[in-house]
Write a structure and sequence with these properties.
Strand order of the largest sheet: 10-1-12-11
Radius of gyration: 17 Å
Number of strands: 12
Number of helices: 6
Length: 206
């Protein structure tokens, strides 16, 4: 299988629901975001490009691209960053990670990984998220896991199930009858930095 996302940029309204759902589901530490919503428009978030009345704005959700040919896996010296052979999901083994950040250096997608420089701290004293997520640790690299713990139970990633405008779709690209396979056959799409040879598994429908 090759799990991935098809994200409809014509439907995305930049509400950040997917990013917040990701934080809550994975109990992310303070100021850590695995999913960011970038504005394609002006110089700052939610600012359009152009001058009134001729303005335009669109949004680009960016997280780990779960590449078919991931550069991060090739450089990890201890196998902490690895590609799951059954699902194609690029995962992190916190227990193996030695904090060298080679994966961050090799990844061409800036900002999709975070590094815990200190012991993770939180805004509340109450843990959020699924009971199956591993504990966050100091000196460890983290990123989107494609909610593998939900996938193991037959559920969609949290970002997909919470999107209020159904802009996010998830499934197996190796299955020609899956929703994501049908969408990329029927719609024009873009992928990020394909010239890097990583073969990303996130398709942006345009």
């Amino acid at each position: 299988m090759r799990y991935g996302f098809a994200i409809d940029t014509k439907r995305c309204i930049g509400c950040h629901t997917c990013a917040v759902a990701c934080r809550n589901e994975n109990n992310l530490p303070k100021e850590t975001w695995w999913n960011r919503i970038l504005t394609k428009g002006g110089d700052a978030m939610d600012l359009p490009s152009g001058e009134y009345p001729n303005v335009s704005v669109s949004y680009l959700p960016v997280a780990c691209q779960h590449c078919e040919n991931p550069a991060c896996v090739k450089v990890c010296p201890v196998g902490a960053t690895y590609k799951d052979p059954e699902t194609g999901i690029v995962r992190q083994d916190y227990d193996k990670c030695i904090g060298c950040r080679m994966c961050m250096a090799a990844c061409p997608y800036t900002g999709v990984r975070s590094f815990n420089w200190e012991e993770p701290s939180y805004y509340t004293g109450v843990a959020f998220g699924d009971a199956d997520i591993p504990a966050h640790e100091k000196h460890v690299v983290e990123k989107c896991t494609m909610c593998w713990h939900r996938q193991a139970k037959g559920e969609e990633p949290a970002c997909v199930s919470t999107c209020p405008v159904r802009a996010r779709h998830w499934g197996d690209f190796d299955d020609p009858d899956s929703e994501v396979s049908k969408l990329v056959r029927e719609r024009a799409f873009e992928r990020l930095l394909v010239e890097e040879g990583t073969d990303p598994s996130v398709y942006y429908l345009v």
